[in-house]
Every structure is written in structure tokens, then in C-alpha cells.
Amino acid sequence: xxxxxxxxxxxxxxxxxxxxxxxxLGFIAADGCIRRNGNRHLLKFCLHKQxxxxxxxxxxxxxxxHPIKSKNENHLDFCFSSxxxxxxxxxxxxxxxxxxxxxxxxxxxSDKYKHCFIAGLFDGDGTVIRRKKNVYYKDxxxxxxxxxxxxxxxxxxxxxxxxxxxxxxxxxTVKVKNNYKNMLFSIEWGSKNDLKExxxxxxxxxxxxxxxxxxxxxxxxxxxxx
Length: 226
Fold this sequence. Notes:
This protein is of the alpha+beta class. It has 2 domains: about 20-100, Endonuclease I-creI (Roll); about 125-225, Endonuclease I-creI, CATH 3.10.28. Helix content is about 35%, strand content about 25%. The strands form 2 sheets. Strands 1-2-4-3 form a 4-stranded antiparallel β-sheet. A 4-stranded antiparallel β-sheet has the order 5-6-8-7. A hairpin with a 2-residue loop joins strand 1 and strand 2. Helix 1 (about 20-30) runs parallel beside helix 4 (about 115-125) and helix 6 (about 190-205) packs across helix 7. The radius of gyration is 19 Å and the shape is globular.
């Protein structure tokens, strides 16, 4: 029969918003690709092989049996076609050619699930920055480690995130910065208080990218021991 599925898929995965759904919408807004190709409505990820388990989490969320394929030595592709899932994702404002979108990707997510969306956005296109810093004082050099987290998206998404975290959490510094030609904006948190607040918000999500979670968690544990 024409159009019969070879692989299984829950076409209703994005029909009703939930913590898991909000997370994956954030992740798609950051690192997914949705597009139409003729009659096909595609959702695609290309991730580093170190994030294979994360793709498996997504497959489980949408009950997909589609294969994860090697793109090259370091990267994996995962892709399927679903008109229903495509329409549901677009209904939240996550559209094809989203790099050029001006609207907020988070405005249609209810406040009770926004922290999950932010976690997905962070896992898709955010960063945990850990580095050594040298301080010179009285002819001596002191070296210590600093950490920051950065979340990226378009301007209106970041402004909505700014409003949400100011009202819902105890961040001390929330400032949206222009990162790239008025197309990519960021908020970066680096103080001890703000890192703890971000970790608290991030930990509330039912899904996280373990390598980023561990990197931030290990830093906070290390600093707490001092």
C-alpha cells in the first residue's frame, strides 16, 4: 500500500504539551531541522556521536523505530517524515528556516513548562564554559577555575526567557547580549548564585543531556567543597 510506514512512530507525540514535549520543542528550536521536501514533512537531527544516547531518548519519546545513521566519522543523522508531527511543531512557532525567524519560540509554551523548554534549548545550542583563570596579586600568581553557562537563540526568544527567569527564579544578572549580526543572542550566567539558580532550573527538567549536566554539577560540587 502506498504511503505505508516501514518504521513505527507515535504521530501524536507533540499533540499535547507536557514536560517532555516542552523539552524536545526547545531542543528542536536549537538543534533540530524541520523542512518540507515535496510531500514529505521532515524532522532531522545531526548530532555528535558522543550524544547517541540523547538521540535514543528522543526515539523513545516519539516511539520511533527509525534508525540512527552515521553521517561521517564524528556525526550521526536521525530523520523521519510525519505531516502530523511537523504541523504540531510548527503550531508552537518552530518553523522551517528558523534561523531567520524573528518571533519568540517560547511564547506559546505555558509558564509551567518553560523551564523544560529552556533546558532543551540549552542542551541543543547552549554551553557550559569551564576554564582556568590566573590572578596576579602581590607578585604571586593564583590560578582558579571559573564556570559560566550560556543559552542562545533569537532576540525575542531570549527576551521572553529573560522575563521568565526574573519572575520565577532568583537570578542576580540577566542580560541579553547580541552574539551575531542581530540574528543570535545570548544570556550568560557566571556568578556562583546564578550558576546554582540555573542548575536548579535545569534539574527540574525530566530530560537533560548528561554530559552538560555532569560538567556543571561537578563544578558546583567542587566549589562547594572549598
